[in-house]
Structure formats: C-alpha cells, structure tokens
Design brief:
single chain, binds NADPH dihydro-nicotinamide-adenine-dinucleotide phosphate, 4-hydroxy-tetrahydrodipicolinate reductase, binds ligand LZUJQKHR, about 250 residues, Rossmann fold
Length: about 250
C-alpha cells in the first residue's frame, strides 16, 4: 500500500488528487496539509507539516509557494520524497528547492500532464529547426482564480524553446510600455485569465509567410492529478537525493 500525504488537500487540485487516490486500491491517503483543518475529510488534516508524525511514502503538493519552507523542512526531517506541483515560486525559492534536492529526493514539475510533457519535446525540436529565423510567442489561458502569471507551464515552454533555439533570448511579458519593433532574441509570453478555463498553452512560431502553432488544452484537472500520482509511485521507489521531473516518466 502506497501511503500518500496531500498538501493543499482542501483546494481544487487537492480534492481531485484525493478522489484519484481513493479510487486506487494500492493507495491510501494518510494525511493532508492545508491552512485549515477540514472536518469533512476521511484523513487528518494538519495546518503544519511538522504536526504529522506517522509513516508516508510521498507528499503530493498542490498548494502555494507560501507552503514551501514547511515542506522542505519536513522533507529534510523525515526523508519522505516530495512531489512539488505548485507554481509561482520566486527564483530564490527555486534555488532553495535545488539545495534541498542535494539532501532529499524531490520531484518538481509545473505541469503533470502527459500531453504538455510531450509538447515540450516538440517545442525543442521546432525551436532547433525554426528558432533562428522564426519569432516565438507563447499564450497561456487559465481560470480567474489563478494568482501567478505567467503560468509555470508557460515558463517551462519558454525555457525549452530558449535551450534549443541556438541564440540568446529574453522573455518579454509586457508590450504595453514599449514602442519599438520586435527583437529577434525575444520570446513573448502572454497570460489570459477568465472563467473556469482549466489550462491552455499555445506556442507560435511566426516566420516569413508561414506560422506554425502547437497547442495543448486541459479539459479537466484529472490529467494533472494522474501525473502527480504516477510521480508519487515513482518517487516511492527512489532512495537517492536529487531533483526529478516528468522527463523520467515520459519516455
Ligand atoms: N503542476 C501541475 O500540473 C499543476 C499545478 N497547479 C498548481 O497547484 C497550485 C494549487 O492549485 P489549485 O488547487 O487550483 O489552488 P487552490 O487555491 O484551489 O488550492 C490550494 C490549496 O492550498 C492551500 N494553501 C494555501 N497556502 C497554504 C500553505 N501555506 N500551506 C498549506 N496549504 C496552503 C489553500 O488554502 P486557502 O484556500 O485557505 O488559501 C488551498 O486549500 C497552484 O500553484 C497551481 O498553479 C495546478 C494544477 C496543475
Ligand atoms: O493554476 C492552475 O490551474 C494550473 N497551473 C499550472 C501552471 O501554472 O502551469 C498548470 C496547469 O496549467 C494548471
């Protein structure tokens, strides 16, 4: 039996991950972490990871960057592998995650869906071939509740394009205050927020007389929960410290 802790268990993703775990006979949710304890849950909910003293095989986190310090301390104290799916970390927090991964196993991905992780490979291939002469723009769309912008996925896509396009790049998030033609080194990233859009990402390669677009649409949160649970099953088999990601699961 795989014993899972869900961090952010009362939130939208936390509840979808809970349902998926409860439907899996090999998985047991042993605890949740969230701001408030919730009386309607089938497992204990702690407002601080330090309050948990039981056994667990992995923590799946869909919460907030504000939870990171407590989670990394918990990982260091318990050696329980951590799956970080939260987005919106500051560069300092990303460095903290890297430092913690030298001591404990940490899996991190801004997008746990299979489709986006295949898209990243397509983006690298397209950027290698087209990146020198085509302009790269990324558009992401999410629900009105989302607080971080651009999405963690948009940044992952930009990083994939930047790593493969063969020239210096600069991410441009705002064209409002600039009155000048587009520079070759720019990768434009635009964020749309509205309604209940689960998550859409589009990358545009715009060249002379030709445009190529690659697009991913999430129709439900289950695709993310499914990937996170796969990651937890994988991490439960890992002993060595390190920073793991979806490329280990998408072959
Ligand atoms: N990697 C991926 O594939 C995906 C990542 N995400 C990311 O997951 C995160 C959560 O998304 P979503 O479920 O929609 O958001 P929600 O706001 O619905 O849920 C987040 C939950 O975490 C709680 N929370 C906030 N701060 C803390 C804290 N310091 N400690 C513990 N719990 C805390 C919130 O409580 P309260 O409401 O009281 O603040 C809430 O219950 C976001 O960063 C999102 O971008 C989302 C989908 C896919
Ligand atoms: O907040 C969300 O909902 C999502 N966030 C992730 C991100 O920031 O990329 C992934 C997904 O698109 C849903």
């Amino acid at each position: 039996m795989l014993k899972i802790i869900i961090s952010g268990c009362n939130g939208h993703m936390g509840r979808v991950v809970t349902s998926l775990c409860e439907a899996d006979p090999q998985v047991q949710v042993v605890a949740g972490f969230d701001v408030l304890g919730a009386s309607d849950r089938e497992f204990p909910v702690y407002s601080s990871p330090a309050q948990f003293h039981g056994e667990a095989d992995a923590v799946i986190d869909f919460s907030s960057p504000a939870a990171l310090d407590g989670l990394l301390s918990f990982a260091r104290d318990t050696r329980i592998p951590m799956i970080l799916a939260t987005t919106g970390y500051t560069p300092e927090q990303v460095a903290q995650i890297g430092a913690a991964a030298l001591e404990v196993p940490i899996f991190r991905s801004a997008n746990m869906s299979l489709g986006i992780n295949v898209l990243l490979e397509l983006v690298k291939k397209a950027s290698t071939v087209l990146g020198d002469s085509y302009d790269i723009e990324i558009i992401e769309r999410h629900h009105r509740r989302k607080v971080d912008a651009p999405s963690g996925t948009a940044l992952m896509i930009a990083d994939a394009a930047a790593s493969a396009c063969g020239h210096e790049t600069e991410y441009v998030f705002d064209r409002h205050s600039v009155r000048q033609p587009r520079d070759k080194k720019e990768i434009g990233i635009s964020a749309v927020r509205g309604g209940t859009i689960v998550g859409e990402h589009e990358i545009i390669f715009a060249g002379h007389d030709e445009v190529m677009e690659i697009r991913h649409i999430a129709h439900s949160r289950e695709i993310f929960a499914k990937g996170a649970l796969e990651a937890a099953k994988f991490m439960a088999t890992v002993d060595a410290p390190g920073l793991y990601d979806m490329s280990m699961l998408v072959k």
